[in-house]
Design a protein that fits this description.
glycogen biosynthesis, Glycogen_synth, phosphoprotein, transferase, allosteric enzyme, alpha/beta, 12% strand
């Protein structure tokens, strides 16, 4: 099925030019999501990283709305008095009517204002509001679905808040409300049903039904047009949730989603084509390490090696300096996140290379398996004795006699340490004791493919079923540090509307493997002529079967491991130079466009736009690097083996390589704008489809 583009990253001609009269001073933006100051999933990262840019654009007229969670408020929010008079009166009125609404600053970059609503405090209204939901929308919510009940309470309370703000304004307000995901979507539908003076945007970051269908091992993307969506949602007991999501998508002035692949999905499942694609960005400055990121890679890699030494205590029969570290991380969805195909590819790679692989996915666990580092203690003791004797020998002006530096007791101690570290059993795979490990999908798959970390295995597997934290006694590293220390991130997801994990790898200069079913993979394919030259490998899971995709992934892993150390350094530098492409400073303009479009639709007397064609625009794609790409076929030595001869190669000049890439990576053509930043003006790179888009007549 061809991907029909709407206003996407490669059809930037649709981004509006607003005339001189467009002004945000009389407009107020409310961004509403269940994950405001409440980390649940990826939407938290979207809102948190985008907040600074949005706060700079809207200033004092930008407010985030989310649920009040006391444990989060204590550490993330500074409660203050509302600064906006109309908003203060609205909050006071709601509080006097039996609600609990708090106002403060979220302690993140940009310090945006937040309005936090205590949903549990108004639970006594649930039955009344459910009846109103049924009377107005014919949507019934079962009593046992707590998450849906919270969505009902949150939706009615946010609609109440927006209505009160509008009524408390002295002049007719221009309120813009941006709702994220189905948990917040009911508030949008209520705003439209009550005809509030609010311009609305609904963004779906992943469709509910799509996630459930993909988890059920169906041929999802090739049968999108054939699904009976009502029946499929009912069979999975999520029909009421699906109705809330679909109602929000259909009622919004502007409907957006995060990637082109999700836009196709939303068009078939939610029955509305998204108006604008709003890709997810990152605050690149947060990850920016200037020219030190290669050094940070080495430092973090050393910390991972220390963990590997402890994990393989008594079984360390391989050289860590000749190992590559691969990893997969994310929500514990075995098939959707591609853990199944990754493990199968590792089994096929087992006969090819010696690789150390770390798998980090959150799962259910009970206790930590901690190893005793007896070898390290013994070595430290011997080191102290050796150092003292060496120091005394130098003080008297004599060269040390090596045969006398270590006593018989020292040799005895070292031999005992060697014998004590010998283990008859296999080295562990999982770092924790798992509850019902016989039913765990990752451990079951590892047993099936036979990757038991035996001495004959060239692929070593570690399953760390816990969120990474610098306070962990086992692997004391934050996720960012861990990613920097690895060589390759592998994310062969079958269902991935965007994909923050490969994006985070990119801005930290770590190559990654993604798929053409992920938003990130499609985004990079549209922008880069040869993604693999920049360390972005795109796996085909759309038009190939599982076995073919697994073979392709195995080939990518094998080719990556064949690269020389110098080639990997060049590739990491190129990967890091793509980070600006994922910066909110660049991608935030799509949210700006969506907001302008919504204001123009809701308040046509004040804001105006008209569709226009984009025939005259010229597309762009990042070409292959000017220098020789780090192709495995050009690497004389396979990795992790590195010969001393490599040091005699012509030296790698980072500045010269960067200058060559800068000359090749062209910025998109921009249209002059009298107000606001210049907006890129392009067409799709490869297939040249035409798109209608929006604009403003000067």
């Amino acid at each position: 099925m061809p991907l029909a583009r709407s206003l996407s990253i490669t059809s930037l001609s649709g981004l509006e030019e607003w005339d001189e009269e467009f002004d945000l001073e009389d407009a107020v933006l409310f961004e509403i999501a269940w994950e405001v100051a409440n980390k649940v999933g990826g939407i938290y990262t979207v809102i948190q990283t985008k907040a600074r840019l949005t706060a700079e654009e809207w200033g004092e007229n930008y407010f985030l709305v989310g649920p009040y969670v006391e444990s989060n408020v204590r550490t993330q929010v500074e409660l203050i008095e509302p600064t906006n008079p109309a908003l203060k009166r609205a909050i006071d009125k709601m509080n006097s009517s039996g609600c609990k609404v708090y106002f403060g600053r979220w302690l993140i970059e940009g310090s945006p204002y937040v309005v936090l609503i205590d949903v549990a405090f108004t639970a006594w209204n649930l039955d009344k509001w459910k009846k109103e939901l049924w009377d107005n929308f014919s949507i019934g919510v079962p009593w046992f679905d707590r998450e849906a009940n919270d969505a009902v309470l949150f939706g009615f309370l946010t609609a109440w808040l927006l209505g009160e703000v509008g009524s408390q304004c002295e002049e007719p307000p221009h309120i813009l409300a941006h709702f994220h995901e189905w948990l917040a979507g009911l508030g949008l539908a209520l705003c439209r049903q009550r005809q509030l003076p609010v311009a609305t945007i609904f963004t779906t970051h992943a469709t509910l039904l799509g996630r459930y269908l993909c988890a059920g091992s169906v041929d999802f993307y090739n049968n999108l047009a054939d699904f009976n969506v009502d029946k499929e949602a009912g069979d999975r007991q999520i029909y009421h949730r699906y109705c809330l999501e679909r109602t929000a998508a259909r009622c919004a002035h502007v409907f957006t989603t995060v990637s082109q692949i999700t836009a196709v999905e939303a068009e078939h499942l939610l029955k509305r084509k998204p108006d604008i694609i709003t890709p997810n960005g990152l605050n690149v400055k947060k990850f920016s390490a200037m020219h030190e990121f290669q050094n940070l890679h080495a430092q973090s890699k050393n910390r991972i090696q220390e963990f590997i030494r402890g994990h393989f205590y008594g079984h360390l029969d391989f050289n860590l300096d000749k190992c590559l570290f691969l990893f997969i991380a994310g929500r514990y969805e075995f098939s959707n996140k591609g853990a199944d195909i990754f493990l199968e590819a590792l089994a096929r790679l087992n006969y090819l290379l010696r690789v150390s692989c770390v798998c980090a996915c959150p799962a259910l666990c009970v206790c930590v398996c901690v190893h005793v580092y007896q070898k390290m203690d013994t070595a430290q003791t011997v080191k102290e004795r050796f150092g003292k004797k060496l120091y005394e020998s130098l003080l008297v002006g004599q060269l040390p006699d090596v045969s006398k530096m270590l006593s018989k007791d020292d040799f005895t101690m070292m031999k005992r340490a060697i014998f004590a570290t010998q283990r008859q059993c296999q080295p562990p795979i999982c770092t924790h004791n798992m509850l019902e490990d016989s039913n765990d999908p990752i451990l079951t798959c590892i047993r099936r493919i036979g990757l038991f970390n035996s001495s004959a295995d060239r692929v070593k597997v570690i399953f760390h079923p816990e969120f990474l934290s610098s306070t962990s006694p086992l692997l004391p590293m934050d996720y960012e540090e861990f990613v920097r220390g690895c060589h390759l991130g592998v994310f062969p997801s079958y269902y991935e509307p965007w994909g923050y994990t490969p994006a985070e790898c990119t801005v930290m200069g770590i190559p990654s493997i993604s798929t053409n079913l992920s938003g990130f993979g499609c985004f990079m394919e549209e922008h880069i002529a040869d993604p693999s030259a920049y360390g972005i490998y795109i796996l085909d899971r759309r038009y190939r079967g599982v076995d073919e995709s697994c073979n392709q992934l195995t080939s990518y892993l094998f080719q990556f491991c064949q690269q020389s150390r110098r080639a990997r350094i060049i590739q990491r530098n190129r990967t890091e130079r793509l980070s600006d492409l994922l910066d909110w400073r660049y991608l935030g303009r799509y949210y700006i466009s969506a907001r302008h479009m919504a204001l123009a639709k809701a308040f046509p007397d004040t804001y105006f736009y008209q569709p226009h064609d984009s025939d005259t625009a010229q597309g762009f794609r990042y070409p292959r690097p000017a220098s020789v790409p780090p192709s495995p076929s050009l690497s004389r030595h396979s990795s992790p083996r590195q010969s001393e001869a490599e040091e005699d190669d012509d030296r790698y000049d980072e500045d010269a390589e960067a200058e060559k890439d800068r000359l090749n990576i062209r910025q998109p053509l921009t249209l002059p704008s009298k107000k606001g930043p210049a907006l890129p003006y392009t067409l799709p790179g490869a297939n040249g489809e035409k798109n209608g888009a929006t604009g403003v007549k000067n």
